[in-house]
Write a structure and sequence with these properties.
365 residues; Dehydroquinate synthase-like, alpha domain; 4-stranded parallel sheet; 3-stranded mixed sheet; 11 strands
């Protein structure tokens, strides 16, 4: 078992990474608190892991909330269902929620915990690769709105993250690939050697080989923990973790939540960000091509944006992105592989070129 600490003073917590952790109650007991425990999960994960988690809790589970599966259910209506359950059953402010699921369940549960009786404890038990390396760490919680993804939420840290890699064995291949988009992102923004290692070892990583998988997850968590410790509320360096997300969130919203997996649109967005970086003269052609090749060929991710999203749709949706400042859309772009920057001063003609070329998979790439 590996332990990565997220150092945030009184809000610090560990990320516990390893195999078969769900069977070890001693790992989670210190973080359960003294109140009642409620597991929040979905209809896909519940049949697989709910009983194992309840067993690990040693009879302390006082309730379970099983939600529908999918990004399209990440909304305020579902949050109200959680509130209804907690209020009807008289759960007080000493209650702890356990988020058992992927990014959607983690974000919803965290937001419910942040807002129920002005804040109760919660624990993340991620069941997707994307949640292991990204969404379960850092305290971003929230829901989607029809006009924008993740526009309603709060920064609220969990008590701990229990990342058992064995739960990933039940994931379909598409979910694995979607999670790997976030893994590749870490190498691109800050660690060129990690990016090279991912490219060289894509086969065992994609095949969920224990040693390679743990190394990849641990490296991503260490990088994110370090960034979050410096910038919890995303007023500076933490924005780099959104490489590909400005484009990707626009694709998710325009296509309809649930049409594409979040990681799939991130992969598309990373290719578009690489193209825009190249057009600005920052990223050379061979590096931009390599970004696309690693995502598409090494890891088998979709990198072609939907052809039915117009340039004007992109611009409208991106203008509502959380990274917009004083009307200026800010992008995470690449100066080189392993070196990302936040940039808002982009000529509209250059941006339109990337958005137009996106329909042809970024033309010259």
């Amino acid at each position: 078992m590996h332990k990565v600490n997220v150092n945030l003073g009184d809000q610090s917590y560990p990320i516990l990474i390893g195999s078969n952790l769900l069977g070890d109650s001693s790992l989670i007991n210190p973080y359960l608190g003294k109140g009642k425990l409620v597991v929040v999960t979905n209809e896909v994960v519940a049949p697989l892991y709910l009983e194992a988690v309840k067993s690990m809790l040693g009879g302390r589970c006082a309730g379970e909330i099983i939600l529908p599966d999918g990004e399209q259910h990440k909304n305020l209506e579902v949050i109200s269902e959680i509130y209804d359950y907690l209020l009807r059953n008289k759960f007080d402010r000493h209650t702890t929620l356990l988020a058992l699921g992927g990014g959607v369940i983690g974000d919803i549960t965290g937001f419910a915990a942040a807002t129920y009786q002005r804040g109760i404890g919660y624990i993340q038990i991620p069941t997707t690769l994307l949640a292991h390396v990204d969404s379960s760490v850092g305290g971003k919680t929230g829901v989607n709105h029809s006009l924008g993804k993740n526009m309603i939420g709060a920064f609220y840290q969990p008590r701990c993250v229990l990342a058992d890699i064995r739960v990933l064995d039940s994931l379909p291949e598409r979910e694995i690939k979607a999670g790997l988009a976030e893994v590749v992102k870490y190498g691109l923004i800050r660690n060129a050697k990690f990016f090279d290692w991912l490219a060289e070892n894509s086969k065992p990583i994609s095949g969920l080989d224990d040693a390679y998988l743990v190394r990849a997850i641990k490296t991503c968590c260490e990088m994110k923990a370090g960034i979050v410790a410096q910038d919890e509320k995303e007023i500076g360096i933490r924005a780099l973790l959104n490489l590909g997300h400005t484009f990707g969130h626009a694709i998710e919203t325009a296509a309809g939540y649930g049409t594409w997996l979040h990681g799939e649109t991130v992969a598309m967005g990373i290719v578009m960000a690489a193209d825009l970086s190249r057009r600005l003269g920052w990223l050379d052609v061979s590096s931009a091509q390599r970004v696309r090749t690693v995502l598409e060929k090494n890891f088998g991710m979709p990198v072609v944006p939907p052809a039915d999203i117009s340039v004007d749709q992109y611009l409208d949706l991106m203008s509502s992105d959380k990274k917009v400042e004083q009307g200026e859309i800010r992008f995470i772009l690449l100066k080189d592989i392993g070196s990302a920057v936040v940039e808002g001063n982009i000529a509209i003609e250059t941006l339109r070129s990337t958005l137009t070329a996106g329909h042809g998979l970024c033309g010259e790439l």
